[in-house]
Amino acid sequence: MIAVGEGALYRLLSWMSPAYPIGGFSYSHGIERAVEAGVLGTAEQLRAWVAAILGDGSGRVDAALLAAAYRAEHDRELDEVAELGAALRATRELALESAQQGAAFLVITRAAWPHPRLDAFAERHAGEAPLPVAVGLAAAAHGVPLDPALTAYLHAFGSSLVSAGIRLIPLGQTDGQRVVAALEPVVVAAARRAREAPLDRIGAATPGVDLASMQHETQHTRLFRS
């Protein structure tokens, strides 16, 4: 069991809260297109879709990037992680989703929880970076242990996708929380793998999600930005 100090826990809960103003509510990660196409229409289908993203898709990649950013000891190493994170996005909308949330996370966190490493990183990257890299750096800078940071990030990511599904399918709030509960072993396993994942061997295998994201770019009526 990893002990988390009260201050570190408070910071982590604040950063991963849906109330943290990074705009996560406006992205569906392709779910909007999947619902439009009739691929997602039940709670079980939503669970399977989000589980794939967390275990084999962007969640898996993000968790490895977060861990690498957390462990980076030098600016060059951290910058390489950020560049890799930007390159590993399969579509324009998925790249936008991560970069814009990362930029917002840096702005808010530098204002509320300032740290010289965050300032230096933002200056080098014009205030933009993949969200998991920004979160990993903030966690390291402010003494949040890696293990809970990984679990909290993946939980927040999954919960945001479930929230999008609830609104789009639509589903009731109780069904949504059943889906979140069912994702617990997926999040735990993904966090565990990320702790040991070498960056030269990470990747995603969710072609259905990527295709949905590509098709969403030209979808006529849209509520979400991805």
Task: Give a description of the structure.
Belongs to the UreF family. UreD, UreF and UreG form a complex that acts as a GTP-hydrolysis-dependent molecular chaperone, activating the urease apoprotein by helping to assemble the nickel containing metallocenter of UreC. The UreE protein probably delivers the nickel. Keywords: Chaperone, Cytoplasm, Nickel insertion. GO terms for molecular function: nickel cation binding. It holds the Pfam family UreF. It is globular, with a radius of gyration of 17 Å. Helices cover 69% and strands 0% of the residues. Helix 9 runs antiparallel to helix 10 and helix 9 crosses helix 11. The longest helix has 23 residues. The N and C termini lie far apart (37 Å). It has one domain: Urease accessory protein UreF (Orthogonal Bundle), CATH 1.10.4190.10. With 226 residues, it is an all-alpha fold. The model has no long low-confidence stretch (mean pLDDT 95).
Task: State the total count of DSSP E strands.
Answer: 0
What about the largest sheet?
none
The CATH class is: Mainly Alpha
Q: What is the C-alpha radius of gyration, as a whole number of Å?
A: 17 Å
At the fourth CATH level, what is the homologous superfamily? Urease accessory protein UreF
Question: Hey, roughly how much beta strand do the residues contain?
Answer: under 5%
Number of domains: 1
Q: Which architecture does the CATH hierarchy give at level 2?
A: Orthogonal Bundle
Q: Rough shape? A: globular
Question: Structural class of the secondary structure composition?
Answer: mainly alpha
Total helices: the number is 12
Q: Spell out the helices and strands N to C.
A: HHHHHHHHHHHH
Q: What is the terminal separation in angstroms?
A: 37 Å
Function: Required for maturation of urease via the functional incorporation of the urease nickel metallocenter.
Family: Belongs to the UreF family.
Protein name: Urease accessory protein UreF
InterPro entries: UreF, UreF_sf
